[in-house]
Amino acid sequence: MRELALLALLLASCGASAESGWVVEVAMSVSHKLGSCAVGDLDGDKPGNEIAEVGENGDIHLAWREPGGWKQIQIAPLQGEMIQCAIGDADPARPGN
Question: Are 97 and 43 in contact (CB under 8 A)?
Answer without folding.
Answer: no
